[in-house]
Design a protein that fits this description.
Blueprint lengths: L1 H15 L18 H4 L35 E7 L2 H12 L6 H14 L6 E4 L4 H7 L3 H13 L8 E3 L12 H8 L3 E3 L8 E9 L3 H12 L4 E9 L2
Parallel strand pairs: 1-6, 2-5, 5-6
Antiparallel strand pairs: 3-4
Helix pairs in contact: 4-6, 7-8
Length: about 240
């Protein structure tokens, strides 16, 4: 019922305030991402690193993953973090355009149907409570809700928490600093995830450090596998 009410609310808002495309210099009315701008998204296609999903010229581990022992079983991303994709994520994440989540969630759903990953439950990468209060919402949760509805997978919210408010990953100097920055900051507080195959959802992957830190916490609590899926990744 709540999902139906949300759709009715969104339809009413669209009627009163018709959406316009957020593509750079576009503003075409009718949707937040028009067909032309959607066609300009840069999908990540094989070959990719089997572990972190980074685009490669050969099907092998990338230099960052060679010799690296990780708890996360793998990471996949749908698009390169550039152009229209970057603009869309910035609007969702920093400009309060939550109405973009259904469109972006559908793109995640389309990818997952074509590239299935082991998953019994969806878990959004959490924000620290202070950052959540400042932003008012977690963009990963919005994407997870849309994706869960589309592919009929349960969403577990609140089971994985960020217990320490650290420096933004975007400000970290390199991959090693990113790993140190998030080491030990997540806790799994939900026994429902024990014995489950978990699919972590986030907006952007840069080095995979945040997803790896989440996987460490989830597997410590008994998750049997943890994969990460993000809308975009930096290269």
């Amino acid at each position: 019922m709540s999902a139906q009410l949300n759709r009715l609310k969104e339809a009413t808002i669209d009627l009163l305030f018709p959406p316009k495309c957020i593509g750079i210099g576009c503003n075409k009315p009718g949707s937040f991402l028009c067909p032309t701008c959607l066609s300009r998204l840069s999908p990540i296609v094989p070959p990719v690193c089997p572990k972190c999903g980074r685009p490669l010229s050969l099907q092998r581990l990338c230099a960052d993953c060679e010799g690296l022992t990780t708890q996360i079983d793998g990471i996949r991303s749908v698009f390169l973090f550039e152009g229209v994709t970057r603009e869309a994520i910035h609007h969702l994440k920093y400009r309060g355009l939550k109405a973009l989540a259904p469109t972006l969630g559908r793109l995640l759903g389309d990818y997952l149907r074509s590239h299935p990953l082991p998953a019994q439950v969806l878990v959004p990468v959490p924000l620290h409570p202070r950052r959540l209060r400042e932003r008012g919402y977690n963009q990963a949760t919005l994407l997870s809700r849309e994706l869960g509805t589309l592919i009929d997978l349960p969403l577990v919210e609140g089971g994985l928490v960020r217990s320490h408010n650290t420096l933004s990953q975007a400000r970290a100097a390199d991959a090693e600093e990113r790993r140190r920055n998030v080491r030990g900051v997540f806790e799994c507080r939900n026994d429902l995830l024990r014995g489950k195959s978990v699919l972590l959802i986030d907006d952007v992957c840069t080095t995979g450090a945040t997803l790896e830190a989440c996987a460490v916490a989830l597997k410590a609590k008994g998750a049997v596998s943890v994969w990460g899926l993000t809308l975009a990744r930096e290269t």
